[in-house]
Amino acid sequence: MISRFRVLPAYYVFLVVLLYLPLMVLLLFSFNDGTALSFPLRGFTSDWYEGMLANGQLLGAARNSAVVGIGVSTVATVLGTLAAIALVRYKFPGKTLFLMVAVTPLLVPFLILGVALLILFSALDVDRSLLTVGAAHVVVAIPYTVLIVASRLVGFDRNLEEAAYDLGASFPYFLRRVLVPLIAPAMLAAWLVAFTVSFDEFVLASFTIGREPTLPVFIFGQVRFANRFPQVVALASVVMILSLGLVLLAQRLQSAWTRR
Amino acid sequence: MSGPSVELVGVSKRYGEVLAVDDIDLAIDEGEFFSILGPSGCGKTSTLRMIAGFEFPTSGSLRINGMETAKVPANRRNVNMVFQNYALFPHLSVKENVAFGLRVKGMEASVIDQRVAEALAMVQLDAMHQRKPGQLSGGQQQRVALARALVNRPSVLLLDEPLGALDQKLRKEMQFELKRLQREVGITFIYVTHDQEEALTMSDRIAVMNHGRVLQVDDSANLYDRPVTKFVASFIGTSNFLPGRVVGVTDDLAEFEVADVGVIRARPVAPLSEGAMALLMIRPERLRLAAPAHNDNSVEGVVEESVFVGNDVLHMVKLKDGTVFTIRDQNLGPEARTAVKIGDSVLVSWSPAAAMIVSD
Amino acid sequence: MKGSGVRWALLLPPGLVLLVLFVVPVLMMVVTSFRPDLRGGPFAWGWEPTIEHYQSVIQGGDFLPLLWTSARVALLVSFLACALAYPVAYYLAFRLGRSTALLLTLLIIPFWTSYLLRMIAWKIILGSNGALNSFLSFLGLTDTSAPVLLYSRSAVVVTLIYVWLPFVALPIYAGLLRIDRSLLEAAADLGASRFQAFRKVTLPLSLPGVIAAFVMVFIPTVGEYVAPILVGGTRGALYGNIIEILFGDGINWPLGSALAMLMLVGVFALIVIAARVLRVGRLIEAVER
To answer: Could you tell me the fold of the domain covering B6-225?
Structure first.
């Protein structure tokens, strides 16, 4: 019995190492002096990182993803918050239906959604662009934002609203000074989740993209170009480190907030 | 100011099929500590919420300081409430919680600071103003809730079972605190509770409610000595009842026929007509386990149980018709204790003045 | 304060967005699947609805087997991912100690990095000039001619399991956390060994979390077409690839829509079954209240 319980931690370590291995390999090769990504390693170079910084297309794609990500997060968080407030605090006919529709984008493979949106945009004669990518991402981010904010609202003390009125507040004042401050951490979490969903998203983007690529679309296109690929790997490493940092930051914020 | 501070006339509240408040009249005087007492579901909280403005009466008139306010929303009334679970804003400090109502009105910062300091001093929480509600104990939170309400200088303060979450000892302390506070501030307090001892301790007058109706409004002594109905009599303190019929009325006394006892004279709390069915009510401490003296009435029974409760001894005596009487005997020490054993046949007697006739 | 105007003002923006960008496109896709062709453009009228596309899918030899294969791949990936993640989730859920949150985060972080890149990483590792092959030949274990594992259906399966593994651990972990520990103590009290307690108490009670995880991997994987492109080669193509081609170079939107509809129906059938099992109905009732 004791041996089984030493097995589990060992298994954990094994799995985590396995998960990080390819990422480490990528990181390793981003410093490799040579375009062939194979052993033995040739030599250490930071050429690829320098090349990456000079590669306008690459940086442009990264910037596009960031811009789209910020736009999508903000819109999805606002829409999700509105929907969450309506769902949790009000009665209305068709509530279940609305909830199901709000959550269903999570249950549809992105391929199908991408294809459907392609049909829509062509029917409406809308040119595909970063805007259409943003629109697609908002749809799949809304389920997350609604659920995150709604779960915070469910635990919200009803009496606080009455207390605010008792003290003379109007509904807008209550929203501004009581409700929103209290759900702000959830809204922030929703924002971060929506950003993550959008920044890394490839399938929907590839169906709704116009001329300006987002980062995943760009990366996918560069896979074939071996001589430029290491730059992509370099960027990938940077993005990886950055998102690691972002996640750790979010964790810090979360625990700091709950300690308050 | 003349006239009552809060007045309800013919007020009813219906929630769908349920009639929570059934045509009640209340007149609460200015500066009074007024309690609404009753079991859960009796309509006391609905009544309080209508005075606060969170619900509007289905019918009837509600006047605060002489002005009709039945349909005025809560945030426009000069009335403040202390909630049962305090409802302190968790993201605001104690100071900001208390200042909330003042900030809504857009008062100057210096005025706000001063009034908040006064309010916190009044509830003895001056040192806590930077803390958040989550860092306070239940009793402290409760006082913040009080300060937050009182700082707005309302004409009426409403309290919705505020002491329910506190332990016994703290509750007793807070009861005296609240009474003292009310006298100091001088405004009308309307207090809702299901705890009769609490109501009796603190209130100038009490309204007893049940099933949406107001059964009696009186001060503690009168409620105890002269309850109008069986419900009020049993809700406030303990009572013993003997059913019977009115066979004659003279002045303020009635001839009351009770089975196994005969016709006795007793005082009806509310006027009764001849032939009415009613109940004879006697408090446990007015009964004696002894042979009847002079004018006393008495009844036979068998001792079922004797319970020692510190300063008293309670005897349960089963009468011939199956009713169990509770007799409270003062504990005057082991020597003076009545030598009563379980199974003894005894006579339970009382003086005629000790009994009242109440309606069912 | 509780005016009905407020609730509609709240619902309108998200409702409109969901309607226009989700409900309508899917409906349009349904309609398109019944069109013979796209002559006259997307809004043309006067065409005869036809089920020829559905017929060619069901009766033709290629599509259904591929759908079935893709479903099998998705099932395999989901099953293996859940099976491999379960012990880790179990370890974290039953572990005492303060750094559990950190260990969990460590596990999840790879998921927060680009899945595209993680797939490309595997492509690099598995390729003929890739890390694995060159490493093995460097050690003298193999020659550099044939790529080990790459460009096959197995490569697709392995890559997908790798991509989804960290994600799958979360719902299983959450489900295991929710199990009342006193139940296990009761089992021990009644004489069960640790393994028996696991088999009779923990495992069954953890199933809702596992099923949730399973569904959360299965659905995206059914429509997966990127992994086949990167690491699947010609033998690793999946149902999703056909749809992608039909909407890309091999333009045949109606046929593609029909294929997509079939996949959608299959996925929804699975969701309904899973929802029954997970008793989602009660959750919705709770929200309604």
So the answer is: Rossmann fold (3.40.50)
Encode pLDDT of C250-259 as tens digits: 688 888 888 8
Count residue pairs from A and B with Cβ separation < 8 A. Answer: 62
State pLDDT tens for residues A30-59.
777 666 655 566 667 777 777 777 777 888
Q: Who's near B254: CB < 8 A, 6+ residues apart?
A: B246, B248, B265, B266, B267, B268, B272, B357
Residues in A touching B150 (Cβ below 8 Å): none
Query: CB-CB: which of C8, C26, C121 is closest to A25?
Result: C121
Task: List CB contacts (< 8 A) between B132 and chain A.
Answer: 260
The distance from CA B125 to its chain's CA centroid, rounded to whole angstroms, is 28
Asked if A37 lies within 8 A of C92 by C-beta distance, the reply is no
| Model confidence pLDDT, tens digit, residues C2-50 | 556 778 888 889 999 999 999 999 999 988 888 877 766 666 666 777 7
CA distance C166 to B89: 38
Cα pseudo-dihedral A213, A216, A221, A226, rounded to 10: 130
Residue that is written with structure tokens 């596992």 in the block: C210
Residue ranges of domains in chain C, CATH in brackets: 30-35+43-288 (1.10.3720.10)
Identify the CATH number of the domain in which residue A217 sits: 1.10.3720.10
Element (H or E) spanning B132, and its range?
none
**Within-domain flag for A110:** yes
Question: Is A181 at the interface with chain B, CB within 8 A?
Answer: yes
The residues with which B249 forms a beta bridge, in sequence order, are: B254
**Cross-chain Cβ contact A159/B53 below 8 Å:** no
Mean of pLDDT values over C267-276? 82
Q: Which pTM value belongs to this model?
A: 0.77
Rounded to an integer, the average pLDDT of A126-143 is: 92
Residues with Cβ within 8 Å of A229's Cβ and at least 6 positions away in sequence, in order, are A35, A37, A222, A223
The ipTM, to two decimals, is 0.81
Query: How many DSSP H helices and E strands does chain A contain?
Result: 12, 0
Contacts of A123 in chain C (CB under 8 A): 28, 41-43
Tokens 């426009």 label which residue? B76
Enter the tokens of residue C216. 């959360």
Domain that holds residue A135: 67-222
Higher pLDDT, C48 or C177: C177
